[in-house]
Amino acid sequence: MGLYELLIIFHLLLFVYWLGADLGVFYSSGMVLDPKLSNSARAIAAKIMINLDFVPRICMTLMLTVGGLLTEFNGIEHPLWQTIGFLLLGPFWLGMVLFIHFNEGKPIGKAVTKIDYYFRWALVTYLLCSVTFYTFFSDRADLQAAPWVSAKLAIFAVLVWCGLRIRKFIPGYVIGVHKLYQDESSDEINESMSKSLAKCRPYVYVIWVGLVTECYLGVVQPGDSRDVLDVLSSLAPVIGL
Questions:
Q1: 182 exposed, middle or buried (CB, 10 Å; 0-12, 13-18, 19+)?
Q2: How confident is the model at residue 22 (pLDDT cuts 50, 70, 90)?
Q3: Digit-coded pLDDT (tens) for 177-226
């Protein structure tokens, strides 16, 4: 077994654990809202949810690095600066996520969280600009022969953007979880948590559809840009939620 096969396995495992853990987070989040359960039971469900949510965040940080290495095996050449960039991206991003997780609530943790927030916006912007340039303004034969790579990068940018949107709407839910840890609960808190989670759900659905689509594109690797556009056009109604 060579490096290519190992990277393929790792890439698929990242997909499986990202989507699988996300489903677990989704299910656990519903249990946290269940008023029929005791506050202690809901608090335990919340702890399970938070620990599970750590897995997709780890998987996201490594996707671009592993994917970038795989494209080298698919005949796509990268300039040296770009290769160095995606090789450093995974460890750097993973390091931030780990630091935030283990320093949650601390001033330094909040500062790094803010850095991570702007970093993700910069990454979304870079990916979309890069895809636009190489799709419409570049005549590189290797990229023209593999339009699925650009499509996967564009979808990944959408996934990161969805995470940023979730981050905007989740505070009401998080505040309620902290109240549960203090054995506090009320109809007002439950309603606030429910509204917060309801605003997040559409973006969670988009992430699921995007992950499955990325998996399809990576396996099938359509070489015709029209085939890729057909796949992406099917996402439009979902992304428009």
A1: exposed
A2: very high
A3: 888 888 888 888 889 999 999 999 999 999 999 999 999 888 888 765 55
What are 10-15's contacts with CB under 8 Å, separation 24+? 10/66, 11/63, 11/66, 11/67, 11/70, 11/218, 12/215, 14/59, 14/62, 14/63, 14/66, 15/59, 15/211, 15/214, 15/215
Q: Where are the domains of the chain?
A: 3-239
Please write down the HEC assignment for all residues of 12-42: HHHHHHHHHHHHHHHHHHHHHHCCCCCHHHH
Half-sphere exposure of 203 (CA within 13 A, CB side): 18
User: Is the per-residue pLDDT at 69 higher than 80?
Assistant: yes
- Judged against a pLDDT cut of 70, whether residue 97 lies above it is answered with yes
Structure tokens belonging to residue 140: 């590189």
The size of the chain, in residues, is 241
